[in-house]
Amino acid sequence: MKVENLWKTFKIPHEKRTTLFETMTGFFRPSEYETFTVLKEINFAVEDGECVGIIGDNGSGKSTLLKVIANILRPTRGRVDIQGRVTPFLELGVGFQPDLSARENIGVYATIMGLSNGEIRNKIDDIIDFADLRKFEDAKLKNLSSGMQVRLAFSTAIQTDPDILLVDEVLAVGDIEFQQKCFDVFNRYKEEGVTTVFVSHDMASVRRFCDKTLLLRHGEQVVFGDTNRVIDEYIYKSEETSVEEERVEERETRWGNRKIEIIEVKFFDKNGKENNNFISGDPMTVRIFYHSHERIESPIFGIVFYCQDTYCYGTTTDFRGCNTGSIYGRGYVDFMVDRLPFLGEKFEVTVAISDSDYKTQYDWHDRLYSFNVHNPTRELGIFSIYCRWRVWKDG
Amino acid sequence: MFTPSHLRELWGYRNLIGKLAWSDFKLRYKNSVLGFFWTLLEPLLMLLVLYVVFSHLMRIQVEYYQLFLLLGIVLWNFLARGTTMSIFGIIGKPSLVQKVYFPRDILIISACVTALMMTLLELLVFAVFMVIFKVVPSAAILYSPLIFLLLFVMVLGLSLGLSALNVYFRDVQFIWNVVLQAGFFATPILYPITIFPDNLQRVVMLNPMARIISMLRDCTLYRRAPLPEDMGYVILSAVFILLVGYLIFDRLEPKFAEEI
Lengths: 395, 260
Description:
The structure holds 2 protein chains of 2 kinds.
Chain A: E1 2-13, H1 20-25, E2 33-45, E3 51-55, H2 62-69, E4 77-81, E5 86-89, H3 102-112, H4 117-130, H5 146-157, E6 164-167, H6 176-191, E7 195-199, H7 203-209, E8 212-217, E9 220-226, H8 227-236, E10 254-255, E11 260-268, E12 277-279, E13 284-297, E14 300-307, E15 310-316, E16 326-337, E17 346-354, E18 361-374
Chain B: H1 4-12, H2 14-30, H3 37-57, H4 65-91, H5 94-98, H6 105-132, H7 144-168, H8 172-186, H9 198-204, H10 208-221, H11 228-252, H12 256-259
């Protein structure tokens, strides 16, 4: 599969004319519209049997690209070369009719997904069993719960035998068990040598499945290549930080007598670049800029990490045996982490300065700062314990 | 368009056409008590009303007027139903257009096939009536499948063009409705063409639907083979309509997913 020099622009009219009447009356008045370029000059090639991920922020054109590959949208310029049968998984249960029975819907949906009548006859019982809907096979679809409908659609969709599979992130919804089922199926497809293009926000699954990854930013192709390298690029080179500012809370967020003020707090990544996105296990530095209005002996700098409302970890210069000495004027203190133990996802940070015996607070910034952590592993929880497993067997 | 590769692609999707048409057909009667009987009952009730009105009040003298009327209604219904269902064939199924790809004309072809299924049931009733009224057809009846096929081609052509236009201009559906209403009375369905003077007859016969209906009546009820000139005219117009319809559809199809 090859994508060559692909452009896609949409025309968004200011005032949409949807009737003949409007078109005729507006014929001599040129219609005004904005052109909006969604994809600019995309070039990449996917070898047979490869799994390629497409990542990028919301609105970067990922789904549009997938639709162009699926031939649902046509490119404005450029072309997509595809050899083989393409099956798009953009939405489950396309064409489901609520008034038909589960069994009849399987028939229609499987045909839409490209199964022949013979295949459907052979597989329909498997599909019903896999979806665990034996009891409801003759019930009308509208009488099934939405979970059942998704199961039905999913078990039908995975019976297809595509050469090229296009998967949108919508599949990532659902409970853990369902997601695990999805992953199993994609693994099976991968082993069978099905070429897959996978759009996702979930870096962990992209890392798990994709040999190569394409990074889009504002519709432009930033980089295409080895997955780990591209994800690094995405997380560490984001132009804007994606941590939302939520300063609307009523709670008091700052107190202290401000003899020493905290001017600013910045986070730096392993490349020494300012960033709010980190990969678990990588180095991180928190830099606290202060301004001391009078000479103060050995103030204590402290830092606390929260994940949602859980107090994760707190330490001070004092606890770690760092004497700050006499401080006056401006400067900064670095809190350096060699391997970030947190797994995900959003962490809030409290930074504070107090006097040498914790009696007076000079400046306390309560959970004013935050950063994101991306988990490259499949481990669960808030933080990772650096550990190993070993198996002993008797005899 | 009619490239061999497109036709081959359509052939590859024949199952899909069948499944979509059949599920639509079933859906139509799913929640009604009388089910399929509605397709039969509907034209019969209409026949009853029109028969009473036209044979008694207006004193139209035609041999087998009931059958004459029934066939006209059934054929016109096919045109009306096929095109009306197709007009919503694209805009009524956004997920099939926006979330998955297959050649979009399949949606229209399958809508026309659904209409065809309904009409075939009605034609069955017509056949039963022929037996009841003891109409003995001649060999001319063998022309009827061919003529009906031409009608199907014409309906398909109209449907393709109208459904594609309706994606961009939503009032096409209303305009077409008015055209159908007017057409019902402007086509010799309720009355024989002979009620018009000669020069007006020629104008009415410009409408291919008028020729199709009268040819089918002739070869089923009146043991007359179709005239070559009628046949030629209908073949040419059916092919022309299909071509124009396909051209419009083909031209507008690439942006369907964006415009819906």
